[in-house]
Amino acid sequence: MDIDYIINHLGEDRSQWNGAITPPTYQTSNFAFETVASLRHAFSDEKKHHIYSRGNNPTVEILRKKLAALEKTDDALVFSSGIAAISAAVCSVLKSGDHVVCVQHPYSWTSHLLSEWLVRFGVSTTFVSDVDTDDILDHCTSDTRLIYLESPNTMTFGCQDFSRIASFAREKNIVTITDNSYCSPIFQNPATFGIDLIVHSASKYINGHSDVIAGVVCGRQDLIDRIFHEEFMTLGAIPSPHEASMILRGLRTLPLRVRRSYENSLTIARWLQQHPKIRRVLHPGLPDFPQVDLVARQMTGTGGLFSFELDTEDIHTCERFAETLQYFMMAVSWGGHESLIFPICTFHGEGSTHTPHLPFQFFRMYVGLEDAEVLIKDLETALDKV
Ligand SMILES: *Cc1c(COP(=O)(O)O)cnc(C)c1O
Q1: Is the pLDDT of residue 361 over 90?
Q2: Where is 247: in which H helix or E strand?
Q3: Nearest-atom index, ligand 1, CA of 154
């Protein structure tokens, strides 16, 4: 199935809605039946039929079909946030006494889920290197039920060898999950390398307009069915039909947006690399990236996120630089239309309650859809001033 078919047609039976190009938003909580027999039949598979919108809603269903096809998996579920999707996927494979191997410094609330929350339920986690496959495999024990990956990481861009990890895990009956928010399904499909479950924060590229919080889990039918009947239906972190229709709109331009963001970010990373006030640039698309071979094997492009360090020993210089930028807004998140900067010195200065694992000179940058030349001018002006 080609991407253009998936994005423009899959799941959209337009004859059902008067030929409307854009599917209606089924803003309804429940669905009425004519006969007891048809209601009885619907209950035989609540995931497929329309009974109640916590389970299955027609607008959300279109989105699910497209996301599953984009990730080359059997099925997908959409959640009210990325972390709800991650929590559901992780919890679906664990019980008390189980052990998890997770890459170091994953998304902050994924880290909290594993290092704090799940500990209350008797699940233990070992955090391992995110660039050394042997370190990941060596830490698996007979109790390990899950290997949790994030490739690339969205701060330091460490990548994991999906094929090697997936074939090891399959042999040991361990489930593999990866967060694929950074690449989006356009630039990386972990299922094609054997990864069992793929999670996304749809708040980032998939919706892409900085106006919805949502999440996705994609995977094999048996694993998705289990999540539906357990975590999805009991914890109930579902998206609204309205949000699903907004994400559907965002999805129409996903390939265009991620390509633009990727190309813009490379142009800017190369420009920063030659600037005397920049100490180093870390971008998985640059030829000097440490894992360049693995990137070439697993990804067909990178996201528009990258990082760099200012060449200074003064934290105030870092603060002033971030505050001087005009086009780059200072904010968390990424994946929208707008370029952003996140200064790690936020976690170092007086009054910070965080314990940073990155130096204060470190900046995480997201490049959006603006003209690269305009963004470079903005950076040039800010660098001249500090
Ligand atoms: C933002 C993000 C999440 C969490 O998603 P929410 O939609 O904010 O809950 C998870 N993983 C990564 C890599 C993210 O960037």
Answers
A1: yes
A2: helix 241-251
A3: 13
